[in-house]
Amino acid sequence: MPTHRQNSFLAHLRTQAHPIHCLDVLLGAPAEVIVPFSGGGVFSGAIQARNDSHLLGHQTSADGSKVEPLTLYFRYTPEGYYLYVRSPGPYFGRGISVDDLGHIGAFIIAEREPVPFKLIHPQRGETSLEHLKHDRVGMFLQCAGKGFVHRSRRHGSEHTYLNTAGGSPLGFILDIQERNAPWLSYPDEF
What we know:
The protein is an all-beta fold. It has one helix at 23-27, and strands at residues 9-14, 20-22, 32-39, 42-51, 56-58, 70-77, 80-85, 95-98, 104-107, 116-121, 125-127, 136-143, 150-152, 161-163, 172-179. The protein has one domain (9-179): Trefoil (Acidic Fibroblast Growth Factor, subunit A) (Trefoil), CATH 2.80.10. The chain is globular and about 60 Å long.
């Protein structure tokens, strides 16, 4: 039986339609969303800025340019794969988790623990790296104990997010870059 390391890998996560990345990377600027407060259905005049930069988006870049694919470390455990950002930049090392509304993002691990995701093959169901013979494979992602990853909108925002609460599953393409990938902090593990 393969070890956790032998079932762990680095991969680009993408779809055929649009790139996937943190919203500020897709926008080329912080993803500040202005949300008006209301009281009892009447606009109260108060507004609040919400920073969605760290949340994963699924849309074309703001200027239409090509965006480097999001590189993730898929760390195998019996509960599923824990995902960590390996793309260069400010999110490197952050864990992929889910906020209280089901939106998926790159969170500072001390503030929000990563959550496990299951790899769901369209024909074979739940799977792991040992069963993936090709380095490019179509896959669904399911947040363990929650729903499939899908596209969604968020109140007050024009952006398209990734979410786990309800919705039709979004098909992903995993481009595996490295198999048998170790932890960064423990490169000599077996």
